[in-house]
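[job 0417] fold request received: SMP-30/Gluconolactonase/LRE-like region domain-containing protein
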Amino acid sequence: HRATGIGPYGATFNADQSEIWVADKGEANEFFGRTVTVFDTGDGRHLDTLFSGYVVDHILLAPNGKEIWATANGDGQIFVFDTQTRQQTHVIDMPKWGDPHGLVWVHYNEDGVARVVRDQGGFHGGVNPFTGRSMDY
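[job 0417] inference complete; emitting structure tokens
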């Protein structure tokens, strides 16, 4: 089996939990990483190494179950990957070199009431992409 990139830090599963995506931050080693490593959860086989941002940190499955978002503190950016193709689809720059350290998705209903549906603590409403089941607010 192949190891992760330098200094693995955060990790998340894809929607069907057949893959685990690992943020290779590298912070503890004084060498900062720029990759995300993808493994098969069934047999531990290395599937892919993806280029990401400098000091990639937190990595989460988006509420739609189709994207993985990875924060890159060293670049002040968020990298978005398609879970099926593993291709990078977007790079989101933080205004004024802001710190993209954590990720939070918020849903606003028709009355303007906001609810957190996903953060580093898990899924909090809507549809859980791991199970496809509705979650109550």
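[job 0417] notes: The first strand starts at residue 8 and ends at 13. The CA atoms of residues 23 and 36 lie 5 Å apart.
[job 0417] exit 0
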